[in-house]
Records
---
Amino acid sequence: MDEQKQVTRRDFLRQLGVTVGAAGLGATGIGATGYLAAPARAAMKPKGNIPSTPIKTGHITFLTGPAELLGGPGLRGHLLAAEEINAQGGILGKRKIETIQADEAAGTDANVKELRRMKLSEKIDLFTGVISSGNTPALGPVAEELKVLTMFNDGCTDFLFDKAVPNPKYVFRVTNIQSADGVTAAVGAAQHWPKARKIASIQPDYSYGRNVHEHFTLALERLTGGIEVVAEAWPKLFTTDFTPHITKLLSAKPDLLVVGLWGGDYVAFYKQALRYGLFDKMKVATTLAFGGVPHAVGKDHPEGVLAGVHANYHFLYPPGDQWPVNKKFVDTYHKRWKEYPSFESDGAYTTLMMYKAAVEKANQLTGGWPDDEAIIAMLEGMGYDSPAGYVYIRPDNHQGYKDAVTGLTKNLPEYDFPVWDPNSIVYIPIRSITAPPNWPKPGQGGNNESTAAADWIKKTWPKAKA
Amino acid sequence: MILGNNGQRRSIAWRWALAIPVVVVLLAVPAFAGAYWTQLLTYGLIFAVAALGFNLLLGYTGLLSFGHSAYLGVGAYSVAFMVRYWHVSSMELYILGGVAATAIVSALFGVVCVRYTRIFFAILTLALSQVLWTVAYKFFWITGGTDGLRVPYSDLSLLGGLIHFAGDDTYNKFIHSYYYYVLVIFCACVVLMWLIVHSPFGKTLQAIRDNETRARFLGVQILQYRWLAFLVSGIFTGLAGVLWVPLNGLTTPDILYWPQSGKIVFFTVLGGFRNFSGPIIGAVVYNFLEAWVVGFTQYWQFALGVILIVLVLFVPGGLVGTLLRVLTKTTTSMQTKPKALT
């Protein structure tokens, strides 16, 4: 694309609708069409006869290993939503939620077997959870085969709805799509460190890491121009020793390092990197430094690092005075679990609450307990005021979209762990960083990129003057 | 040579008679068990085929392979490649292609490995299997990397196109048809392996296992026999990989990773590697056990670890070995001396 339009970086960021600082919340708005299933509207009287048998939900997530830092809060978000719903007598006042759990760490093949067990043997009504992007492309098609209504929390790879389940019927996903993660980190980096040109990258060696690397470098090139990738390190997922990778990164002397490590991997990485003074020698942009439970990262973590939350949610934002839904969620979550929620907590909590809202709305239309088709019809195009802001489920690909957010780490006296510097938070309207509906999927309509998002960025984004 | 005396012949006939009710029960399973248990049992039967192959090396040739994930994986990936690159949908072609691919790989690996025994053999097989794992993991533009490659059952056809699963709501039909398909192949494999281990070839392998030096003095070409055993073992395991992939729906590098080899060792030890039926029972039981433990507790690794320790310390003969010992003890008064178990 040599004939690209050239713009200044500032104009570019303005065109994307990027805002910085706590006051930028005004930008997180309702940009998409769709109806709003606000939690406050849930008080309508159920129609028809509702059975009192419980709703069985299956929840597979990481209960052991380094990824438990993400899976644990997810499960707690799910359980909190179930408890809140059950305290009101259940969905439609009658059907309480029961949860069957299983450990995602058992591996993809065991997860496939477990989903089949949950549906065929336990007869679950709803399947939720799943963290790893290696697992949703395996479980999505199985869920479609089994015709089990599925709302993935995460496992946010673009591949799921681009390729593995291109025309989903039963499968939905609530948290933001993966390509938004790398692009959000790039926008955050372009905002805070516009002069960084020599880029190094350390990513877990699987689809997520490759996705982050590709979309980060692609977007940053457009945003700042003239970047050069000077080093790449690809440690295996769930590695604990990063020393050889750290020395390789240091020797390349980059201006900026992009880190896609997550869970226990990130914690191990930053502690080892501290010993080498890595954070003093380069700027660091992460996609998931604040991805686990907030206290997983200690106050020894350096300040001024771009700490990603998977482009989804941090418990302090949107601020409670501006967005009471979040304040209420954080308070009840903290009271219940004695810790602050993570983006997985919000994702799993919102999943159940959206399911509840869809059932209630379908009940108003059909009476009695709605069948899956009716619930699906309500989920498609649903908008919901979640703790993280407004979430919208796009009907064409069943993917949840909400405005993306990231910020720089800072130690504030109120918390035992680092949080975001309120003045550094970058908000990005999600429509500015994701491919629009019906953009050709990979392999179709002249899209030869790995994702619809990459193709869309290459074909439509201007290039900032270097 | 093998059916030398009447006593042995009677004992063998008795065992085959015992197999009849087992087959009858297996035939009836889908009628009363439902789709979930049927598909779980299908997994069990498939891994039993792999275990049969594995045990030809461990139980009959005395070689512990810690790299049998390689042949499962080659079988599975060759099917996935046929689907992805050539859009093949016939199960029979999968079997042909998968078996041919595993035969080539195990023949090559065998040449390298059979020159060694004991720990050296185990480490070599492990290393070679991890080379294949790395290829599947790293060459993601060909292999799909950790996303793996899908082999959807909806595109599958059995018996040269007689049975297919296109259309809506075909999952139960697939599970039932596929179960019987696997059952037939499983039975054929059991008979074939039984014939192999009781043939002069099988007996020679056992002679090598028991005393290599003596076998060599008798003029046995040790390396050639070991290589043939390695080849047959790999082919059986590869066939299991071929059968596994449409049932699982996809293959990822996990199938090539060393814990998969560990699992094959696990269920052979669980059933007992010193007898013919041990690995079969072990594979089936392990599949139920794993599915149950993973669903039952988040400490599933701990639970499986405890079971393995108990097995090695207290039940070294495995489930079948121990059961046979108990049976032999109770009937010992009827027999002059306990027979060697085959």
---
Amino acid sequence: MASKVTGRQATLLRVLVLSGTFFLAAGERVKNKIYDEIQGDMACFKRFNGTHEIGCTSKFFGNTGVLHVIEEKADFDWVYEHGPHQPYVLAFTPLFLTEAVLERATDSGKVSGVVVVVPEDFDPETQLLDGFSGETECPDAYLGLYNASSNPDYAGYCRKKPWNPNGTSMLYTSWEFPIFLITNQTSVNNIQNCFEKFNKPVNGMPRDWPLCSLELKSNMYGTTNSEVCMRRASIGPLSTDNFCDPLYDYNIWGTLKPMNMSEEIPEKSVIIVAARMDAATMFDNISPGANSAVSGIITLMSAAAAIFKHKEEIINVSNKNILFILFQGETWGYIGSSRVVWDMEQGQFPYKVKDDVKDQIAQINLTHIDYFIELEQVGQPEDINKLYIHTDPISNANPELKNETDNLLNILDEASNLVNETKFVRVRKDVPLPPSSIQSFLKHVNISGVVITDHEGEFKNPYYESFLDNYRNVKYEADNETSDADLYHKHINNVASVLATAIYKLATNTHKKITADPELTNELLFCYMKNMTCNLVQEYGGEMAKHLEPKPAKLYVSVESGERYRSYVTMYLMAGLLGDEVERNQSDCKIESIYNMNHFYYFSHLHNGTCVQTTVRMTEAMSPAFLIDDYDWKSGEYSTWTESGWKLTKVMIFLRPSVLEEVAVVCGGVVSLVLSVIVVHFMNSRADLLFGLSTPPAAC
Amino acid sequence: MNVERLPNERKLAICRKYFMAGFALLPFMWAVNAIWFLKEAFWATPYPEQKQIRKYVIVSGIGAIVWLVGLISWVIIFQQNRSNWGATADYLSFIIPKGIP
Amino acid sequence: MTVAEFFGCGLIAFGPSLAMFGLTIATDPIRTIMLVASAFFWLLALLFSSILYTAVVQLQDYLAFGVVFSVLFQELFRFLWFLLIQKAEGGLKKVSDGNMQIVENKHILAYVSGLGFGMISGAFSLVNVLADMTGPGTIGMKGDPKNFFIASAVTSLAFILLHVFWGILFFNALHRRAYLQLAYVILCHMLASCITLMNPIYSVTIPTIWILTILSGVLAFIVAGGSHRTIQSAFRGRPQVLQVNADATGNFTQVGGM
């Protein structure tokens, strides 16, 4: 009972109850005097695929260890060779976050956990010269187009010339102890101060108890691989337990003009413009993906907005349509794009035909695709005016397709000449595509497409799929939404302009210079890179915007029950960019059925309430592997990534007493008991003598 | 109920009932029978039905022990091999522990 | 890890009351019932002080206020409890199954009531602290005194014993209408409680409380009929005065109290 008494009640108890109260400080729980809970929301957690598990877990009750802050390499040796107080929890900056360090910590058997602290003055650019990426050297290669069985010519390309040379594969390793990332400065200082006060060795000599310790709690429910934990989640009478869940989110997309099922879509009439929506890190709650995702997302949104201003011109002269799509879960084996392809093949993209819905959206299948333009990382070109265009050497061996691709390349060239800011350079023809969503399509259909990136060979991004891939990495310098001094947004806006110009030409076959809106680009960049509570999101983000924190967007794909505010907000933003205002009040501004070709979105904070009609919607992005009956988990055809369930992640800092002290206290207790038994027994058995019972108490 | 106060034929009847009930895969019946009638079977002053009671007690006792040994071995084997047996073991489990292979 | 601290401090604080309960109370159902009932009266005192505390919002920040009124309520309810058992004496005689000792020797009931008050107040004062001890950590990171746990346990122990002694003195005072003795109990309680406001200066508070405990203990002992001569005779182990009822097991002459 007592342990549940908290807060005000506890105050009451402590004050009143007792005359025997020991006021430590008025009304505070003793627990709060022993433990400090520090930032614990960025835990490394477990994920699974068809054959493996990756990530970290703590023991059921958490891992505890004596804190040791590593300041230089020699401190590791001190812990492993001299440190007498094992197990230790090591704390160090990202400088030491390497595979070798973690492996040695595992092998030493003296380490029960690791916290990676990022002090405010930590500057990755000057301190992390080798870059840092949790990804493999060849991201997503196993589910891409060029695996050994299908294309022996190109399968080995990445192994010889890795796309991501800074890749450590740390993200894909299963660690034996919990790892936490701590960026909150109060928590960082807390760790540093506690270490210096109680633990820091003096002249190499270890300090005496009590010692500052950490408890890391991040117990994961899932184990082994997706097959095992998905099966366990589905059986048993208590199957509500989430052992693991498939990675899940929504692809966000919209078309320039609505597609009614009653009108047939011509073959090769849909130009797809795609970018990747998600990014990942080892840690929960942080996945900025500034270059790996945001650069592409914003370029696409900006270009879409620019094109949409010319919607009528395009519709009038052309039967082509343009589909802007943000693929979700691409980091984890192209989940979003492979799902779209699978749905198209099944004749159910976006939905299966419904009998009784008017103005139903038309089905799109693979033959409707005309061109495919994909934006991958576009934010860090070495030469600010130069981006690279990648094409697929295999499909383009077909002369017919090659003609189309050449046409596309020429149009892109012309567009870049017209805009005259960013030049597009073609990558050598025998180089396979870098990791990109189009690979999911090319596995099933021959289409002509390009991937636009900022790198010719290896990635220019030193922090691909790491928590350091943030606005600092791409040198986005705007401090507010309206600042126009920043160069980065100009670069992104130029790329968007070229893209819009090229799309216009592809759709209408006429040249026209289209310029994207730099203010919009900057606002979007500011929101995603720095602060998701920005004005633009407040106005155009829909109702979910209020749940977002004033932080960079978290771009991890997560699971079905996971946090998805940024997806809803992105959908609303897209709706605002690709929508027409209509005169409807809030109660009428809603869709009758999701199968309708047009959707309605209501922006309550925009001009006292605005209704927008648009084709923008979201469709499920979960790997087909979880939908196919008896899917062979080891086949490697579709992504099988799942995320473990867990109850909480938590870090506590406290002092641990010496064993000697504990023994002394227990002995004291035993002595107290034994002595009192003797005394009480004596008094009780001799009570007649002791209290002189021959003379009874006066009052009786 | 105090067994000692019962008439001898009632004792035998109860002992036999428990013995028979044990065959319905109820080893606990045998265990109870064996312990409950242990004194009657071996240390009570002799009477005609005692011989039969003793027989039932011995067989019940052995049966209960065999069951106990069997169950313990099964539990040990199952726990040791649960992760190796894969799906089969999962389907045999009522509660699957979290975070353990 | 510091489950050790939990058991250690728990035993230090509750070891004596455990021994008293096990050896003198648990053997007799009537005593057990009276112990629980008196503990219930202490809880009533707690309830009323809590109501007062909640009602008087302005004074919630002043611990001293809470302490003073809590002490007064506890003593008030000790008095009410006394009145109740006075009234219930007849009934008690009936249910005591021929064992008239508890009715005849007034000190037994006083001792049982005091122990009831002591155990429940000890439990309430220390359980929160004990519960927080079970984790892996110990106190001291934020500059709090490192001996907080031990000091809490030792203070708790003193208060449990004090309640036992106060129980005996209080009841005796009422029986004999010795109002000075009554005043001593209330003032002593007030002083002991208020001195805890000085925590964590344990070097002052703990000796003071223990001096009060020893003083009250001696007084209670004398009031209950003890003296240095009875101690001597108890150690010699032979009855100096003729004991009519003395029997080998000591059962019949058993008398609670310290």
